[in-house]
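Section 5.1 Outputs to date
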Amino acid sequence: SGMTGLRLRVRGFLSLHLQERPLSEDQTMRQIDEDWWELRATVPESQQLEWWLRWFGAQVEVLAPARLRLKMAANAHEVDTIYAPDLQK
């Protein structure tokens, strides 16, 4: 655990929500294009953070830290292997 420099790409309602309720005092957000914002914040690294990020699904992409991005990718792959067969019908 400890603190980590979180960098996310967020879109839609989530970007609005995070502008109103920042994750940290040092949070910054900048618009990338009409859909996406880049968020930077120093936050505690925790299981709770991972659950929170998963909750938002495709509304958020973890850019950093790399170990958290890998965890998110592994989880997305696991979910995909469960549901992907339904899309091939």
